[in-house]
Amino acid sequence: MYFDIEEELKKLPSKPGVYIMYDELDNVIYVGKAISLKNRVRQYFQSSRNLSLKIQHLVKNIKYFEYIITDNELEALVLEDNLIKEHRPKYNTMLKDDKSYPYIKVTVDEDYPRILFARRKGKDKAKYFGPYTSSKAIKDIIELMRKLYFIRTCNRNLPRDIGKDRPCLYYDIKQCKAPCQGYVSKEEYRKDIDQAIEFLAGNYEPVTNQLKEKMNEASLNLEFERAAEYRDLLESVVAISQSQKITRTDDEDRDILALASTGRQAVVQVFFIRSGKLIGRDHFYLTGVDGETKSHIMTSFIKQFYSGTPYIPKELVLGDKIEDQEASLIEDWLSAKRGQRVYIKVPQKGEKVRLVELARKNASLILQQDDEKIKRQEARTIGALETLGEILNIPGLNRIESYDISNISGFNSVGSMVVYERGKPKRNDYRKFRIKSVSGPDDYASLEEVLTRRFLHAKREEKELNEKNISKEYGSFSRYPDLIMMDGGKGQVNVALKVLNDLNIYIPVCGMVKDDNHRTRGLYYDNKEIVLDKSSETFKLITRIQDETHRFAIDYHRQLRGKAQVHSILDDIPGIGPKRRKALMKHFDSIDDIKQASVEVLSQVPGMNKAAAQSVYDFFRQGQE
Predict the structure, then answer these.
(1) Using CA atoms, how far apart are residues 175 and 191, in angstroms rounded to an integer?
(2) Domain 385-563 grouped into CATH 3.30.420.340
């Protein structure tokens, strides 16, 4: 398909809508919305514009674009969000975490209500508390409620099923008053539920006072085990009450959002405040933030996060302004989703500023910890790779392919190709080879077959991509490594060099030499052995590559051995598939019984017809005449 971008730009309408950018393989690489499609899309292709590096890369990869016209910008915003979630484009700022927040559900519409864990807020008559950021916290609270107020856990339909079955274990351990037996009236049970609801709403004082009294009373009566139970319950209540500190006295629902960014990654910290209490907090990573402003990152986060969250509070309190032209639009969108007015505020003073700064500090701390982790990781991967490149005098070393052969006395010989990029395994590029042309345990010949097949495939794919004018980076085999590593020494290296020379390909090859205990000792490269410092990150990287190559080959060989071992002689009979084989094995006690059976007996097996029975009968009598 030929797409003339300059001509298509002239056809763009001056209407609101969504535009979709595609690369040469028809992948969606960017989705955006616009008040005027004509003005917005043309901006990407104006050479005079000061485009960020990220947008320059985007434009370079755009093969063609499409657009969808909407009635207004609000519709465009909703459509944009849906398309981003569906396609997860490479160049959009993306919310990395897809989290859901559960609720505590009290079935107040039942005669004998229950307290349940709920994944989402339903449109029913139940009462919901939350959302909470921790599923474990919810389960702990529900468990505490059942112990404090003897709330039933069963799914029985009460009062219809009262007295039909004996009481459950919870009645025996004194954690339920057995409403299923009519041992507690509806009115008395409702009082317990009302107290539990009051507790969930944040009124902890009556419970703590009650537990203290019971603990002291049990202690005075020398009932120390019972006193310890009340003490444990009291500690649980105190822990919950301290985790839900009062932040304001206006009892409003609001989320506090603050952003921290290092340029290449960003984190948004969210404090969830419900009824004036901090019920939890969470942080979210965003990708594709290179060159983006804080206002753009925060705008992208709000649109993606609140399109999926089951609850939208009355107020969003931000540490950074969102894009001016988006603010009122997003408020309208959130208000429509909530069913009530939602406000977005950036405070300048007061308690909200303190909370925003606290959230920002948390986000910065997370990034700082991640940076330290990334530096350690880079020393193990990129740093080790750069050192290896210096040792072998291979500048720009990035992609490594490693090969190994696995067999047992030549049985089911297989080859493995493992790929490392930037010092990390790239498992999507791993390849398995079942040896076809070599009989017996000949590792050199097997390696020659594997490497020949791999690079002949690469040449064919490269030719096909060139004919279609598609970049080599989109091929599965056409990307050549910067270095080939062989699991072995001089012999394996020479095999690889011979294959590459025959195919007129130049790629450096080195061997991973092992000691007498089959452990990595060093490298064989350019006709000499290179000894490495065993404590260095480079040596550890080579060891990881060698171990991974060996593991991958063995796993494939084990897989083939397993298939061979479950092979049945019945599989070799024409007309007998898995279902008939299973039916025969179920009907007869052994293979010998099947061999002795007549055609008439075989025909009586479920799923067998006369032709299949004759085929089995004839198979076991071949060569007997």
Answers:
(1) 16
(2) yes
Q: What is the DSSP letter of 321?
A: P
- The secondary structure element, H or E, covering residue 513 is strand 509-514
The CATH architecture annotation of domain 5-92 reads 3-Layer(aba) Sandwich (3.40)
The topology under which CATH files domain 569-619 is: DNA polymerase; domain 1 (1.10.150)
d(CA 449, CA 316): 63
pLDDT tens digits, 580-624: 888 888 888 877 788 889 999 999 888 889 888 998 888 887 645
Cβ–Cβ under 8 Å, residues 315 and 60: no
pLDDT at 249: 43
What number of other Cβ atoms are within 10 A of residue 260's Cβ?
22
Strand (E) or helix (H) holding 220: helix 205-220
**DSSP state, residue 427:** G
Exposure class string for 475-503: b at 16+ Cβ within 10 A, else e: eebbbebbbbbbbbbeebbbbbbebbeee
Asked if residues 367 and 265 have their Cβ atoms less than 8 Å apart, the reply is yes
Q: What CATH code is assigned to 254-372?
A: 3.30.420
- Helix (H/G/I), strand (E/B), else coil: 25: coil
Helix or strand run (H / E) with residue 33: strand 28-34
Tens digits of per-residue pLDDT, 38-87? 999 998 888 756 777 888 888 888 989 999 898 888 888 888 888 888 88
Q: Phi-psi category of 254—alpha, beta or left, where left has phi over 0 and alpha has psi -120 to 50? A: beta
Identity of residue 85: K
pTM greater than 0.70 (yes/no): no
Encoded amino acid at 2, one letter: Y
Closest C-alpha among 142, 162, 164, 161 to residue 153: 142
- Distance in angstroms (rounded) separating the CA atoms of residues 412 and 516: 26
Fold: same for 254-372 and 385-563 = yes
Does residue 100 contact residue 120 with C-beta atoms inside 8 Å?
A: yes
